[in-house]
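Listing S7. Sequence submitted for prediction.
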Amino acid sequence: MGLQPRRTLADGRALPLHALPPALTGSLLAAPAAIFLVLAFVVPIAEMVGYSVTAHVTQGTTVGGLTLENYARLFRSELYWVVLLRTLRIALVTSLVSIPIAYPLAVVLARGGPFWSRLVMFTVISPLLVLVVVRAYGWKLILAKQGFLSWLIKGVGLSASPPALLYTEWAVVIASAHVFLPFVVLPLAGAIGKIDPAVEEAARTLGAGRWTMFRRIVVPLSLPGLAVGVTLVFSLTASAYVTPQILGGNFAAMLGTLVQQQILSVNDWPFAAALATVLLAMTLLANLVLLRLFERRFGRWVGRGGGR
């Protein structure tokens, strides 16, 4: 029998937790998670943002004092603008590429038989069981000029000279979509599993085909799960470092790569903090925009359906 936190009354009797006011009970239960979140996330982020505006490096020397020089340097240089736009582009393309791959897998996961559901679950989760460096080097072997993909394209006669994918943005997109696909499939499968089968049965009775039911019922009602998955993939791809570094090299550098270079190679911590702050702000803003778009689309569909 577990111990319950107790509050002592004036006469010495102990009051069980369930007798406390609901607001106080909720606060006590949420306190450990809130404290951990503040210490592990809020405080480091605040220190990073503060460091980006309280110091800058001049001629190899760190100079203290309130300044916006790091951000001015970031937005003055065309190089950093190119990297910033490339980061946004790769993250967006990866999110879009993941959607058509995730839907069939999510449908099988949510509605398939036990064997197929377990097989899809294992296939989707397995990339997360491998170290990110191992995954990246595996894709490097596949996408190399003389790699497996090139050999396969030549073998089936599609091209005698396949295009080089390694050290391009597409190499980063392919590997990132493979690694982060579970973060789309699992929320999507949860949303699809909550759709009432009676809705699809009614559409089937009215003569709707499989594609029509998928397009008019499954996709709109699964938009909340898709929104969660897409924002996760976008955030993880935009902040990735190992995959762009190994598969993109200097030809497809992203903001995460620049942060690493500024810290380990240049030893310019204030500018690295500014880069990381911009990356964080950019990711949060993009997620808010994506969630707003999904919310408007879902609300429009529900409103139209409710008015019929």
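Caption to Listing S7: primary sequence and predicted structure tokens for the chain studied. The mean pLDDT is 84. The radius of gyration is 25 Å.
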